Every structure is written in C-alpha cells, then in structure tokens.
Amino acid sequence: MAATKLSPLDWNIRFKRGKLTILLDLDCNRPLATVKAEVLKALHARYPSGQLDGITIPTEPADIIFGKPVDSKDLSQGWTTLEAVDLNGDGKAGKSRAAAKVNGLDSLQGAGVKDKSFVAFRFKGETEARAAASDELADEAEPFDVVIPTYDDEYDETA
After folding, report:
1. What angle do CA 83, 84, 85 make, to 5 degrees?
2. Which of 19, 36, 59, 110 could be disulfide-bonded to 64 (CB atoms 3.0-4.6 Å)?
3. d(Cα 119, Cα 32) in Å, to the nearest integer?
C-alpha cells in the first residue's frame, strides 16, 4: 500500500458507535455526504457480512446520522445531531445547499467539529429497531449509543 501524503487540512476524526471506533484522516472541508460514504466504506470493509451488532449496515450514505458532543471535554454529557447547514432555514436543498458547499458549511469544519474530535454515528431507523427488539421505548433524548472507556474500566482494582 502506498503512503498517503497528508495536508494541513487533513484531520484525525474518531467516529464512534457503541465500543467501535473508526479513525479516519479526512479533509476538514470535505462534504458531509462524502464523509458518510467513507465511514460506510470502512464499515463494509470491516464487516463484510453487512451486520454490526445485529443491525444491518446501510448501503446509502444518507442513511447515516452523525452526532457531535454536547461538551467536547465531557463526552458523558451526550450528543446532538450533526446536520448540514441550511442557510435559508426552509429545509430545501436548492440554493442554500449550493451556497453551503461553496462556503464550506456542508463539512465537518462548517458543522463545528475540530481536529482529533469524536463524532458519533448511527443508522436511520436504528433506535426504533433496537426499541422494538428489546420491547422498550426509544429514548429520543440520547439517540447515539456510544461507549467511552474510562480510567476505571482500564485499571479495575478487582483483578
């Protein structure tokens, strides 16, 4: 495999779901749709069966939802949904989407993500499928299932 030359615009981003972490070096101005495609590519390479923790890995990048930490210094505070910027606020993809791409707003950097950050991800319909499988109500306040290891997990005193 040939070495990849990184530029100053390439960031290390850790994408998290459950205990799984995917580390990708990405251009910070790359459109979110392309970033989602890269995450899917990594998932399908790692899980050729198409299943991740009993959930089917989607084939379309639009079926991935990203989240960023509420507090980047304390990941236990939870996650908020990370969406592409809609400049007009009308929910349409017309000129606002084109302007967002030109201005770099439809990117990780434009969404407020920083270098070496964590970005949570889940699949569309995953919360509902998990709730149906466990006969529990879906918790809409915390739609991202992310496990962050702690010092206590690493150095358990019972061993």
Report:
1. 115
2. 36
3. 12
Per-residue model confidence as pLDDT tens digits over 38-88: 999 999 999 999 999 889 999 999 999 999 999 989 988 999 998 655 444
- More confident: 95 or 148: 148
3-class secondary-structure state, position 21: strand
pTM of the model: 0.73
SS3 135: coil
d(C-alpha 96, C-alpha 90), whole Å: 9
Task: Determine the Cα–Cα distance for residues 97 and 101; give it in Å rounded to an integer.
Answer: 6
Report helix, strand or coil for 143: coil
